[in-house]
Design brief:
445 residues, FAD/NAD(P)-binding domain, 5-stranded parallel beta sheet, 17 helices, 19% strand, binds iron/sulfur cluster
């Protein structure tokens, strides 16, 4: 069976892609939760936030009816604090370390409270930040994702004129193009980017791609410093027979299309297999189900103990009716008339620990065949190795090498975020952008 789009009614799409974590319905509901906070000394929740947001402080500001102060506390540490409140895996970050967990009580809903303050700030366009007078220094930032925007905002506040070069037609990077639509909408991402640039001193040049329309050498000549926040984006291939059949998609492209073309336009199979169990795999599987697939099976070569996604994410997939096939690795995709019909999986068992410390999967010699009409590859993303090498940047398999001052081997060129670490959370990229800006300011002085 071929892939089919427009499987559902407008109401069904609306329902399936509505906000998974709705905001507080009333101000009083937010106050009740904020007042549960113990305002811990040496608060563990702050230490678990990669951007070190002063969480007890912003919660206390909510309790004293000071939403502007609360939003400032959040956004001065994390300018994408609004988006992060929607997409951060808080169960393994701030909320996961809230002391209430030790008392077997629900943790403070930090993300929901963060959203309470930041959504207001963005919707009402509060001018929370001012720029210092211009220093006449100019910095080019490549990539308008979380790392690039965070770096640009810190620099602009210090009076640096920043020009951002973005290959897409909108800013936000992964937030705008690579996350399930029921977590954060493209409209919110656009509003957040506008809020960031409303500071002034940040110009974003869209549809400008490094290595195509923009060259690093030109940027080095024109600007006082360059920050690379180009992310990762190439889907890892499975390298198995049948990978080129119709109906085999990569998860990045699938999610990108959902976010840019509208739900009814996206073709989806009836029986879908998703390869991998990271956050992107979960987002692809749940959205395939929400687009109308009747069966979605996530194929993962290890066990639950080694899975890269959080248990909360796994539960979203299970609640959506996705099936998990543990200890199975794709071996071959079979097709008929050029269209996927089956996925053959090798059944695995755990062997010795690998370099990452996780048990490595070993083939048992047995196989299992799934009848499918769509296979979504979500086995990880790869850095832009060719781009990095062509620009003579020192790298480790495409991941840009930087020193403790975020500097690459090229003088005046700095880098951070996913293009350096290979892909972490949005909030890690925001912190990387802050670190990069700090290093650039020191360099310019
Ligand atoms: Fe409040 Fe929990 Fe943080 Fe303590 S750990 S300050 S209770 S949010």
């Amino acid at each position: 069976m071929a892939l089919v789009n427009n499987r559902l009614t407008a109401e069904q799409y609306g329902e399936n892609f509505s906000d998974i974590h709705p905001p507080f319905e009333t101000r009083d509901a937010a106050l009740v939760e904020a007042n549960r906070c113990l305002f811990c000394y040496d608060a563990p929740c702050i230490k678990s936030c990669p951007t070190s947001i002063d969480i007890p402080k912003f919660i206390r500001q909510i309790t004293t009816d000071n939403p502007k102060g609360s939003a400032y506390t959040i956004l001065s540490a994390n300018i994408l604090g609004g988006g992060c409140s929607k997409v951060c895996p808080v169960e393994k970050l701030c909320e996961g370390s809230c002391v209430y967990n030790l008392m077997d009580e629900p943790p403070i809903p930090i993300a929901k409270l963060q959203r309470f303050s930041t959504e207001k700030a963005i919707a009402e366009k509060w001018p929370l930040f001012q720029r210092k007078p211009s220093t006449t220094k100019r910095v080019a930032v490549v990539g308008a994702g979380p790392a690039g925007l965070s770096c640009a905002h810190v620099l602009s506040r210090e009076g640096i004129d920043v020009t951002v070069f973005e290959k897409e037609s909108k800013g936000g990077g992964l937030m705008t193009y690579g996350i399930a639509a029921y977590k954060v909408t493209p409209q919110f991402c656009e509003d957040e980017v506008n809020f960031i640039t409303s500071l002034g001193g940040i110009a974003i040049n869209y549809n400008q791609e490094l290595g195509k329309t923009v060259s690093l050498a030109d940027l080095q000549q024109t600007y006082d410093a360059v920050y690379l926040g180009v992310g990762v984006g190439l889907a890892r291939q499975l390298d198995i027979p049948g990978e080129n059949l119709n109906g085999v998609e990569d998860a990045i492209r699938f999610i990108y299309d959902i976010r840019t073309k509208g739900y009814p336009a996206i073709p989806v199979g009836d029986k879908v297999a998703v390869i991998g169990l990271g956050m992107t795999a979960i987002d692809a599987a749940t959205q395939a189900k929400r687009l109308g697939a009747s069966e979605v099976t996530i194929v993962y070569r290890r066990t639950q103990a080694e899975m890269p996604c959080t248990e909360t994410e796994l539960n979203i997939a299970k609640l959506d009716g996705c099936r998990i096939m543990w200890l199975a690795a794709p071996q071959e995709i079979i097709g008929e008339n050029g269209q996927v019909t089956q996925l053959i999986c090798s059944l695995m068992q755990l062997g010795e620990p690998d370099a990452s410390g996780r048990w490595s999967p070993v083939e048992t010699g047995e196989t299992m065949t799934l009848d499918v009409d769509m296979v979504i590859k979500a086995a990880g993303q790869m850095p832009f190795e060719a781009l990095v090498s062509e620009n003579h940047l020192e790298n480790r398999k495409g991941k840009i090498s930087i020193n403790d001052a975020c500097a690459t081997n090229l003088r005046g060129v700095f880098a951070g975020g996913d293009c350096v670490n290979g892909g972490k959370e949005v909030v890690d990229a925001v912190q990387a952008g802050k670190d990069g800006a700090k290093a650039i300011l020191k360099f310019l002085k």
